[in-house]
Every structure is written in structure tokens, then in C-alpha cells.
Amino acid sequence: MPGRLEGKVAIITGGASGFGAATSKRFAQEGCKVLICDLNESGAQDVASKLDAECKKSSEGGAARGFKMNVCERDDWAAAVKACVDNWGRVDVCVNNAGTSYKNKVGLELCLLPFIIPGILSLLRIYAYHVFMLPFEGFPLKSMT
Ligand SMILES: NC(=O)c1ccc[n+]([C@@H]2O[C@H](COP(=O)([O-])OP(=O)(O)OC[C@H]3O[C@@H](n4cnc5c(N)ncnc54)[C@H](O)[C@@H]3O)[C@@H](O)[C@H]2O)c1
Questions:
Q1: Pocket-testing residue among 11, 38, 132, ligand 1, by greatest number of atoms within 8 A of Cβ
Q2: Of 54, 71, 112, 116, which sits most exposed with the smallest number of CB within 10 A?
């Protein structure tokens, strides 16, 4: 049975760990070609090479590649889109998941800074994504920011 994402191409940011790595795995298992983007280049390459090897053993048509990217940089968005188009001819989906959070702490030990930094990063990643991707001709039909 063909995968539900066979023939689709996705950019997944923050794909070196956590939700992004899990999402990349699920997408690849469903036949999607996934560009796994992360500041952590070696982490992204590790996740991608494992997934790509699994994809080659299955017949769903999935594939994965790792890519170094800072989601706050417009030029990195341009480079990620170019990598998808060069490798697979298109971009259909973007899961803009990269981000950071404060470490778990007892409530009374929290200060303001760990709230502010993830918030600013979220704004920058959404800004850079929209400024670059909205005018892009092949703007992903499905985007989760
Ligand atoms: N885990 C939770 O409970 C939780 C709750 C609410 C929201 N979130 C959000 O969900 C997302 C994923 O969370 P997670 O728990 O999987 O985190 P995680 O730390 O496991 O993974 C985040 C990934 O994003 C990458 N990253 C960070 N900044 C980046 C940047 N500027 N450019 C590119 N890559 C960058 C990191 O290198 C890391 O690999 C984050 O945006 C987080 O804020 C998580």
C-alpha cells in the first residue's frame, strides 16, 4: 500500500531531536522526502542517515537528508528550499518546529529570562519563514509554524 505522503517533499525544522525527529520519522515512513533541518548539523545528519537507510529497505518512496539551518535566518530558508528543489524538485509541506524551552524547574525558581528567550526565538522563526516563504512560488500548501 502506498504511503500517505508518497510523492510529497517536506522541510522539517528542529529535526535533530524531540518532536522534529519523531515527525521526520513518521513522514519518511509515509513515503515523504524529508529535509531534516537543524542548527545541530551532525544531529540532523545522524537522524537523516538512519531514516534514509530505513526508507531504502521499504517500498514507500520516502527519503531523508540532513541540512544545517538556523530558522531565524532568511538566507537559510532560501538555501533549504533550494536544497529540496535541487534534490526532489519541489516543496509541499513545512513543519517549522525548531525552538527552545526552559528546563523544568520548581515554579518559584523560575525567572523571566527563560520565558523571554524562547518567545523571541519563536517570533524570529515565524518572521523569517513568512518573509521568505510567502513570496516563494511553490509556497508549501501545508505549513505548521
Ligand atoms: N517538549 C515540550 O514539552 C514542548 C512544549 C511546548 C512547545 N514545545 C516546542 O516544540 C518544539 C520542539 O520541542 P522539543 O521538545 O522537541 O525540543 P528539542 O530541544 O528536543 O528539539 C528542538 C530542536 O530545535 C533545534 N533548534 C533550536 N533552535 C534552532 C534554530 N534557531 N534553528 C534551527 N534549529 C534550531 C535544536 O537544535 C533541537 O534539535 C520547540 O519549538 C519547543 O519550544 C515543546
A1: 38
A2: 112
Other C-beta atoms closer than 10 Å to the C-beta of 132 total 17
Domain limits at 75? 9-144
Residue 107 confidence (pLDDT): 72
pTM: 0.88
In one-letter notation, the amino acid at residue 66 is G
For residue 4, is it within any domain? Answer: no
Q: Is residue 1 a part of any domain in this protein?
A: no
DSSP 8-state assignment for residue 80: H
68 φ/ψ angles, rounded to the nearest 5 degrees:
-80, 125
- Any residues with Cβ below 6 Å from ligand 1, and which? 13-14, 16-20, 38-40, 43, 69-72, 97-101, 118
When divided into structural domains, the chain yields a total of 1
Reported as a single tens digit per residue, the pLDDT across 22-75 is 999 999 999 999 999 999 999 999 999 999 999 999 878 899 999 999 998 888
CA 13 to ligand 1 centroid distance, Å: 9
Partners of 37 in beta bridges: 13, 67
